[in-house]
Amino acid sequence: MDTERVEAFMRKVEESETKTFTPVSGRLKTGVDLGTAYIVLVVLDEENNPIACEKQAADVLRDGVVVDYLGALKIVKELKAKLEKRIGRELINCAIAMPAGTQSSAKTHQYVAEGADFEVTAVLDEPSAANAVYGISDGVIVDIGGGTTGLAILRDGQVVQIEDEPTGGTHLTLVLAGNYHIPFKEAEAIKQDYGRHREILPVLKPVVEKMAAIIKKHVDPAAVDTIYLCGGTCCLTGMETILEKETGIHTVKPENPFLVTPAGIAMNCKL
Question: Which domain covers residue 194, as residue numbers?
Fold first, then answer.
C-alpha cells in the first residue's frame, strides 16, 4: 500500500466534511454507505478528487441489514439534500456496498438509494470497496464496522474470499455500558473520545480479541503477510496492536479508517 498516497487522500476526504471542493472535471460520483452506527455519503469527481462528505449517526441497520427502511430513507434524503446545497448541483449516480456475506440485503439498500432519487450504478461488498482506496494486490482487508467484522482476502489484486461475522463497534459500546453501569449513548460517547482510549482499551480488549479470532478463523498467516484495517471501529487507538499480536500478522491502520469504505464505494460509482 502506498501509505503517503492513502493518507493524503483520506485527509482530503475528511476535510470535505467541512469544506466543499470545486470539481476538477466532469460529472460527480457518490458513495452511499449505510452503516450500523452511521450513514455516510461521499462525493468525488470523475478523477476521484474529494468534493464533499456528509454523515449522520443512525440506528436503522442491524449487521448490515436495513431494519428501518423509512428511517434510512429519511437520513439519506437529508444528507443528499445537504450535499446538493453545498455543491450547487444535483447528485444522480451512486454506488452502494454491503458487509461481506450480506449481499442478500442488496435490494433493500438499493431501494433506499433509489427512494432518495439516486440511480444505483454499482453494488459491491465493503472490503472490496475499501481496496479501491488502498490498492493492494495481496493481503487481507478487515473492515470492522458497527455490527460486523468483515474481511476480503486478495491475491494478485483479485478478491478470492470474503467473510463476515457479528462483532463490531456496537459490541464494544455494550461492554463499556456494562462496565461503567451507564446508558448505551453515554458509553458510545466515551468510546469516541480519543482522550479516553488508553483508559478503556483494557476493558475492551476481550472484544478486540474476539475480532482477532474471527480473522484467524479465516486467514492463514502463512499465506497472508499483512492485514489492512478500515471501518469506524478501527478508530479505537491501540486495537491494531492487539490484532497484530493475536493474529501474528503485520497489521496496518491508516490515520482515518472511518471514511475509507464510503470513499471507496464512491470510487466504484459508474457514470
Answer: 136-252
Cα(215)–Cα(165) distance, integer angstroms: 10
pLDDT in tens, the chain (271 residues): 788 999 999 999 999 999 999 999 889 999 999 988 889 999 999 999 999 999 998 888 776 678 888 999 999 999 999 999 999 999 999 999 987 666 667 888 899 999 999 999 999 888 888 999 999 999 999 999 888 898 989 999 888 888 888 899 999 999 999 999 999 999 999 999 999 999 999 999 999 999 999 999 999 888 899 999 999 999 999 999 999 999 999 999 988 899 999 999 999 999 9
Do 234 and 152 belong to one domain?
Answer: yes
Question: What CATH number did the domain enclosing 8 receive?
Answer: 3.30.420.40
Residues 110 and 7 reside in one and the same domain: yes
Q: In 10 A of CB 182, how many CB atoms?
A: 14
Cα distance between residue 258 and residue 124, in whole Å? 18
Domains in the chain, number = 2
- Same-domain status, 117 and 143: no
Do 93 and 167 belong together in one domain? no
Pick from 167, 137, 169, 166: nearest CA to 152: 137
SS3 17: coil
**Apex CA 12: angle with CA 98 and CA 127, to 5°?**
20
Same domain, 161 and 241: yes
**Residue 270 and residue 264: Cα distance in Å, rounded?**
12
Residues 56 and 122 in one domain: yes
